[in-house]
Specification:
This protein has two domains: 50 residues; 75 residues, no CATH class. It is 66% helix and 0% strand. Helix 1 runs antiparallel to helix 2, helix 3 runs antiparallel to helix 4 and helix 4 runs antiparallel to helix 5.
Length: 151
């Protein structure tokens, strides 16, 4: 018979609370450098909400309030790959511009997320790219970044 006590599962909410508090206080302190008092409202609000929500999460875990959460990291590899794809897209867009990088990113991201129908991927990519061009370039006269190769 095994007399060892069961190992208590690690509660991932505590590192999240620490991260939220740290991020919120750094954001709050950096917002004090903004000269215009009206422009400080949004960073103060976001920091305050992060602190408030982190406190709720902390209290919920300290006093075992609500349903006990179980963490499942089965999708971590897929999320990490998608994050790498996003970083590659941002890098590509800054080099070759939005209109060249975006169609590749859309097709690759749809494929990474499980879309198998290439017809849907191509039509969606064309429609999104066309919509962005018509709405931002033509209707709003906002120029989309061209990248450092085409400046």
């Amino acid at each position: 018979m095994d007399t060892k006590p069961a190992k208590k599962a690690f509660n991932y909410n505590y590192p999240v609370v620490v991260f939220l508090y740290t991020w919120a206080f750094v954001f709050l302190i950096s917002a004090t450098t903004i000269k215009d008092s009206g422009s400080k409202i949004f960073p103060y609000f976001v920091s305050g909400m992060a602190i408030f929500l982190a406190t709720i999460l902390l209290l919920k875990n300290l006093f075992n309030i609500g349903k006990k959460e179980e963490f499942d990291f089965t999708g971590t590899a897929k999320a990490t790959k998608y994050f790498g794809l996003l970083v590659a897209y941002i890098t590509a867009a800054s080099i070759v511009g939005y209109y060249i990088a975006t169609p590749f990113y859309l097709v690759l991201s749809m494929r990474a997320l499980g879309q198998k129908n290439y017809k849907v991927m191509i039509i969606s990519t064309i429609m999104v790219s066309l919509f962005i061009y018509v709405f931002f370039d033509l209707a709003l006269d906002m120029k989309i970044p061209q990248g450092i190769l085409f400046k």
